[in-house]
Amino acid sequence: MGVFASTDDPGSTGHEQVVFCQDKQSGLKAIIGIYSTALGPALGGTRFYPYASEDDALADVLDLSRGMAYKNALAGLDLGGGKAVIWGDPEQIKSEALLRAYGRFVESLAGRYYTACDVGTYVADMDVIARETRYVTGRSVEHGGAGDSSILTAWGVFQGMRAAAEHVWGSPSLAGKRVGVAGLGKVGKYLTGHLLDDGAEVVATDVNPKALEWVRATHPQVALVDDAAALVASDIDVYAPCALGGALDDDTVPALRAKVVAGAANNQLAHPGIEKLLADRGILYAPDYVVNAGGVIQVADEIEGFNFDRAKLRATRIYDTTREILGLADDEGVPPAVAADRLAERRMAEVGRLRTIHLR
Ligand SMILES: NC(=O)c1ccc[n+]([C@@H]2O[C@H](COP(=O)([O-])OP(=O)(O)OC[C@H]3O[C@@H](n4cnc5c(N)ncnc54)[C@H](O)[C@@H]3O)[C@@H](O)[C@H]2O)c1
């Protein structure tokens, strides 16, 4: 995969900057990918993961940083898209020295990239990284941070689901609808609460017995099924993938009985073309990166000095953005995932262009 975009190389990615960082003593090997700063500094989390190879780490950071540019654009943030990966097993090599070495590389970008938590990194790690750089969000509440981002992620998913419900059934209310939640983790738990409050019936599954115990104790009215395949095949109106990526694939989509898909998981479409398969089956897919932006909205708010109410208001607007995308998809005769990409690209081009107006 080439990083430099060129007309001769259709596989090239068009990233602005990709930085390889190494500190041999602490074992740090990191790659920071900045896809676009058209709307502002690039924001995206740091994934700490034992990739099989450097190529895998690079492919992931290129993919994830591009995704963040689109997500941040549609979240209405004045932030571009970036992401970082630390290559290695966090259980084995994570240390104060490694995180601080990483923080110094983030600082060296002088604010072109803000980091945050992702798979394998936590709020406490951000506090360590912050000892070396100002450009870090997702910090602990004691340090003025936003804390657990899954609270507004779940709220935003609920808002996106309401917009999708309105598009299909004429009312945003989920009352009386049967919603299948796959994954009762940090986001799935809060989402289940919002759905029950709205009068929905919830049927759920999780591979972790603790999550099942939690739901039995907290919401005994939630029906449980064995696995995601059983959930997909059950009589649900809405499917909310809230576990891992790739939930919508060539086996799942033909079996799906829901009319709406709206969930928190990143990268739900297993491969390009699945969005068309969903549309052909008359299933409305609310694009994952649109509806799950509440978390990035929450951590981005920290840059201004965290205010929960303001961040929640911004996450509530995911309802309006989802409506706009679904309307655009109908008008342009394309699946919602394509309409979302177009809207994000439009904002990056239209607002990004304003920087060409000379100020001084
Ligand atoms: N937390 C956030 O703020 C945030 C923001 C944006 C996107 N997301 C995405 O949302 C998804 C959920 O995030 P989270 O923070 O709740 O993660 P989490 O790890 O807390 O929860 C995931 C849950 O899914 C369950 N699970 C895993 N595999 C499963 C399977 N095959 N079938 C059923 N359940 C399964 C796990 O046991 C766990 O309870 C992830 O894809 C994440 O990338 C999260």
Automatic annotation (TrEMBL):
Xref: Gene3D superfamilies: Leucine Dehydrogenase, chain A, domain 1, NAD(P)-binding Rossmann-like Domain
Q: Ranges for the Glutamate/phenylalanine/leucine/valine/L-tryptophan dehydrogenase C-terminal domain?
A: 147-356
Please name the SMART domains in this protein's record: ELFV_dehydrog
Q: Which InterPro entries does its entry note?
A: Aminoacid_DH-like_N_sf (IPR046346), Glu/Leu/Phe/Val/Trp_DH (IPR006095), Glu/Leu/Phe/Val/Trp_DH_C (IPR006096), Glu/Leu/Phe/Val/Trp_DH_dimer (IPR006097), Glu/Leu/Phe/Val_DH_AS (IPR033524), Glu/Phe/Leu/Val/Trp_DH_bac/arc (IPR016211), NAD(P)-bd_dom_sf (IPR036291)
What's in the keyword line of the UniProt record?
A: NAD, Oxidoreductase
Can you tell me which family this protein belongs to? Belongs to the Glu/Leu/Phe/Val dehydrogenases family.
Q: Which PANTHER family match?
A: LEUCINE DEHYDROGENASE, VALINE DEHYDROGENASE
| Full protein name | Glu/Leu/Phe/Val dehydrogenase dimerization domain-containing protein
Q: What is the lineage of its organism?
A: Bacteria, Bacillati, Actinomycetota, Actinomycetes, Micromonosporales
